[in-house]
Amino acid sequence: MDFGIARLVLDFSLLVLILIVQLIIYPSFRYFQTKDLIKWHSSYTKRIGVIVMPLMTGQLVIGIVQVFQDFSSIYNIVYLVLVIGVWVSTFFQFVPMHSLISRNMVNNKIINKLIVMNWLRTALWLMIFLLSLFTHVY
Questions:
Q1: CB within 8 Å of 98: residues ≥ 6 apart
Q2: Model's pTM, two decimal places?
Q3: pLDDT at 42
């Protein structure tokens, strides 16, 4: 089964989403009063999760299936490693930072760390998309 178009759509969707988060949403946290950020953050994390988790899960499932379909493809292996990298980064770096914000332990240091470290996920999703585009076109 060929997942080329589905993979490309998922990867592009996540790239656009992470760019919106990186360039608009996370920087906007700096403009909230603490109590307002706590209230907004609770709503934000629930709503963004409904969008992000199905996309990330689809990306991971396709990556795993493609590796099992063609384990000799270095592109499939690299793709899956990059996707796993996003998952690891998300759940071991970003979920704990968001938990601090949710528990009212927010300050400028946490917000700045969130913004700076999120460039890693942005770069990973850019590489994932470019790899999908390259393998789809060639």
A1: 41, 45, 114
A2: 0.93
A3: 92
